From TrEMBL:
GO MF, one annotated term: peptidase activity
Record-linked InterPro entries: Bact_TGase-like, Papain-like_cys_pep_sf, TgpA-like_C, Transglutaminase-like
SMART domains documented for this protein: TGc
Cited Gene3D superfamilies: 3.10.620.30
Name the record gives this protein: Transglutaminase-like enzyme, predicted cysteine protease
The keyword Hydrolase appears for this protein: yes
Keywords attached to this entry: Hydrolase, Membrane, Protease, Transmembrane, Transmembrane helix
Amino acid sequence: MAKRMVKGFIRLLARNGYAKLCVLFAAVLLWQWFDSLEGYWWPQTFAIVHAALIAGTAIEFLVPGKLRWRMPLHAAALLACIMVFSGFRWIPMAGEWKDAAAWGDWFAEIAEPLAPYIGVAAVAYGLFLFAGQFCRTRPQVALFCGAVLVSLAVLDSFTTIYLWDEVAWCVFISLCWLVAEHFERFRRSHPDTWRHLTEYPVSFVLPVIAVVGLVMTAGLLAPSVNPVLKDPYTLWMKSRGESVPSFVGDKVRSLPSAVRERDARSGYSRSDDKLGDGFEFDYSEVMTVNTNRRSYWRGETKSEYTGQGWVDSEEEQTEAALSGLETGEPLPKRLAGEPLKLSPEAETMNIVATVTMRRDEPFPVLFGAHQAAVIRAIDGAESIPAALAWLPESAELRWPRSDSTPYPETYVIESEQVVLDEEQLRSAGPPDPRIAARYTRLPAVPERVLRLAEELTAGADNDYDKIRRIETYLKENYPYTNTPDISKRRSEDFVDSFLFEVQEGYCDYFSTAMAVLARASGIPVRWVKGYAPGALPAELYISIPENAFDPNMGGSYTVRNADAHSWVEVYFEGFGWIPFEPTPGFSYPYAYPIDEMPAPVLPDLSDVGPVVETGGESGFRIPPAVGIAAGVLAAAGALFWLWRQRESLVLLWRRIRFGAMSANEQIVHETERLIRICRRRGLERSDHETLRETVGRWSERRRSLADDFQEVLAMFERAKYGGRPVTDQDAERFAEKVRLIRERL
């Protein structure tokens, strides 16, 4: 009986064997392609799509009949995958069963958690069914496999995403699919010969395996060579005067070997003595932080700049530490000498952060918001490991590096943050001589760095205005990128090469440059690293009423490896260490006095790469590289012609779109369009509000876009109420700014 069942199952699998192989090959190819989007999808979406591919393949293999008979099963399988992996919870219907409105409300309530996943999963599943059912002939198979391979090759060549494994698997599956298609045609054309071949399966299969294996082995063992011909994308970038990093062979051939050997993924660094390598964004989760107020999650501080990076100074290495801590015990600000006291004018607020780790990885410190004040709990227990040390001078909670004391899964830290009162900081007295001597030390930096510091702070009569000038200068004059072109570097000093040679970089570049320029101006500064705030759940911006938002942006933040960040802290006598943020695209979440808004800072975001501080944006995002790949597949032959005709096409488009509108009218038109788009993205506007009031509320909700909103508002008011005509160039720049905001929404 069992033997007959096994034979029947084998016959079922063998029936329409080539069609089932097509489904399997399509599923594996799409699986590899979707793997390249792992960093841009929610983990739930990633799990849903992969589970749906497995379920769909099983249905196609095990359920006979026509496709239209299997479609209900496919729909049910897709819905089941979405419900299982999205955290769906059943909600009973509370109203009368005869009430149609109650049924509608109930359905909307249970369907709402599924909405973010349905669209993406349906498109992915539809592509799988299409490829498995309709890619049967050699041209169809070659077209589908070629599209997958070309798109992966474009992503691998023009981005820092490593897709070699995916490309190799796709080449292997494509060869197997073409071999299967060849034998299927042979079976239909010569059925008698085919039956004879199947009587000798070993002699039939071994040559196929040998040929495919030989091709794959030759490809893997072939030496790396540079390309002989330039591709259209490289030609286009070169024509614009922009460089294209080489990712051939060793993936980052243009970088020194020492750079290639180092970890190229973003994350919390373990060594900061040599800064400046490029990195690839890693969006894997590190921790979630449930807090009553949005903040940066501070880790360690370094005070000794070497010219190449940061190390612990002699004072930090010999700093007295306090151990044997107890929960609820206030952490002292100083162990020896006079206790460090804040000025009576210094107002503070408390921030409570519950940190839950999402990865099994030890860190040297516990993370908290700014200045830790009290440890509330560690792993839910009131006792604290005796080896945990508090370093008050550095404001670090050092976790013991010992296997006997594993890093905690969850802990609660209450921190103290000084309210940012600019007038009081301007009137702060001279810093403590001991602190000034320790945190203004510099090695022999080049003279032009010292001259720049002197020029930036000339005319400012207090440390606060000086530090703000340095911060604004860095934000406005240097673009953000995670892959700076370090081939331009000539100077031995890291800051000197950034300011005058490389002139682009990421947070380590900006924070180190600000620290050195400030110290050259006699301001005590220290370098700090940790994590940017992370992202709130995306559904908060959709499901929560506007009047229910917490003005402090409290909530549960997901912090990822890509949120690893560095900034600086400046010492003000009577106020302690105040954080400052020089990196474009980032804004430190200060606590301000009541009824006082933060001073606007207008960083240049035109060249900012992938967003690492999302400020509430999360979930599925189409990366720019995917758009590039699609464009190459759709219009590779027309790229050069479009580049030659770009000025004429832009002029034609503007004439069609705006007709006889003046530049002022175009800016007003673009602003109204942006308002409509923002409304569709969950940013409401009341009819009685002025645009200035609306922008103020939007800036609070979307801190990462606050500077852009303010710039749009200023240009709109100038165009509508200024009384003077603006230029066409102003209108073009305004349209570009609106486009950037739309993309980041």
